[in-house]
Amino acid sequence: MGVGVHTRPGTEEEGAAAPMGPSAATSRRMGPVHWLLILVIAAIAATVVIFGILSRSRAENKLEKDTDALAMPTVSVIHAERTAPQQEIVIPGNVQAFSDAPIYARTNGYLQHWYVDIGAHVKKGQLLADIDTPEVDQQLQQARADLLTAEANHRIAQITANRYQDLLNTDSVAKQDVDNAVASMQATQTQVQAAQDNVKRLEDLQSFEKIYAPFDGVITARNIDIGDLINAGSGAPAQQLFHISATNILRVYVSVPQIYSAATRPGIKAYLTLPEFAGRKFPGTLVRTANAITPASRTLLVEVDVNNSDGTLLPGAYAEVHIAIPGKASTYIVPIATLIFRSQGIQLATVDDRKHAKLINITLGRDFGTRVEVVAGITDQDAIIVNPPDALVNDEEVRVNTNATPQPNGSPGAVK
Question: Contacts by 325-329 with C-beta closer than 8 Å and gap 24+?
């Protein structure tokens, strides 16, 4: 029998290496290059993560800044326009005749004739119309007859009284008879006086048949025609015959705001402008004031007289009165769009050097429609906000829009 050779399980020969696992084999195969690649990939991944975090942080910061910027009001500012120390106020007024009167009849009758019509220039005392008054004429004739009767009775009473006086000297009549004769004479004398007064009254009434102009002027209305029944007002409303206006000098009454009342004095020069006379000025003078403020409007009523000897201006016309008010200091003009109306009063919003809004109370003067006058509260250096936000509060931070161009009415234009 041969001798067999015995070997250990799992071994084939002496010195053979034992088999290795997969990780050990992989580790043995990875060199320095592989490790460097791993490090680079890890660095890239870390960079991506860090970049994402930083981007989100920057986006959040930008969103926060944009939110704050949108919450901050963006405003446009202007500077007030200064006026001259001598101010000219423009006030609407109605041109009136210096003297203006309706003409009525003083007696009843029928219009017999009229001599002037509307637009006629008449002189004081000029005959305008005749009225036929037959009733007055008859009453006058009767009154004159009554006067003659009274005078006759007075003459006979006077003769009788004289005779009784002579007879009394010879004791031919009683003293009582003389007294009766004297009293009768005095009574008739009174009757004569009454008759004379009645005749004078009717003569005056008859003189009213002639209608005369009371002053120099222009006839602006004629309300009668030949044959019209004229009523002097007894038992019925009186009828206006003519209307006359004196136009050589015209009056214009205007209401000056209270703020200028202290400087408004007689003698101040003024002039009128009318739409139908474009570019032409009609000089006038402030002649008197009411010396009292009207409580309803807080204005001072003044009268401006204008020479109209050529008859260019017509009474009743609308005109703008320009009055030069002397002043010690000039005022400012701002657009109406800058005003803030709150319970604290009328205010303006300005921007200070720190870009913060400041609300200031002001005192207004004249109103020019799209612009108003400010007489107190602002200076030349104030940067005034146009169209201030409704929610704007004092000391609020604002952003000034330097690209907006203010328009003449104060509203900002388009951003360039």
Answer: 325/86, 325/87, 325/88, 325/89, 325/260, 325/263, 325/264, 325/268, 326/86, 326/263, 326/268, 327/85, 327/86, 327/87, 327/263, 328/85, 329/85
Distances (CA, A) of 324 to 89, 92, 261, 263: 7, 15, 13, 10
Tell whether the model's pLDDT for residue 2 goes beyond 60.
Answer: no
Residues 194 and 281 in one domain: no
Q: For residue 44, what pLDDT is reported? A: 81
In total, how many domains does the chain have?
A: 3
Residues 208 and 106 in one domain: yes
C-alpha Rg value of the chain to the nearest Å: 55
Q: What is the pTM of this model?
A: 0.55
- Has residue 287 got a pLDDT over 90? yes
Which position has the higher pLDDT, 377 or 71? 377
**Same domain for 184 and 265?**
no
Instruction: Examine the pLDDT at 408 and tell me if it is beyond 60.
Output: no
Alpha helices by DSSP H, 170-213? 175-207
Decide if 258 is inside a domain: yes
Residue 109 has pLDDT above 60, yes or no: yes
Shared domain check, 319 and 304: yes
Task: Give domain status of residue 92, yes or no.
Answer: no
Domain residues for 115?
102-230
Q: What is the pLDDT of residue 416?
A: 29
**Domain assignment present for 178:** yes
Point out the domain boundary residue: 325, 352, 374: 325
pLDDT value, residue 402: 77
